[in-house]
Amino acid sequence: MYYSVDDVVSNAFKKRMILDSFFAFNCSGTMKVSTWVYDKGEWYYVSSSGSMIANDWVKDNGK
Length: 63
Description:
InterPro entries: Cell_wall/Cho-bd_repeat. By secondary structure, the chain is mainly β. Strands 3-4-5 form a three-stranded antiparallel sheet, with no helix packed on it. It has a two-stranded antiparallel ribbon with strand order 1-2. It is globular, with a radius of gyration of 12 Å. The N terminus is likely disordered.
């Protein structure tokens, strides 16, 4: 399990830049994986490694 370094998370999730990749953490600080996150009017997919995928196609639920 991975946790955010911040104790305070103000939104439904917190976005962090780590080694040139964005990662999303939920309110408890746990890193989100293999799911969709909504940020500033845009949807992003978070891979199984936790990094946010942008500017690429993602096959989700067979579609």
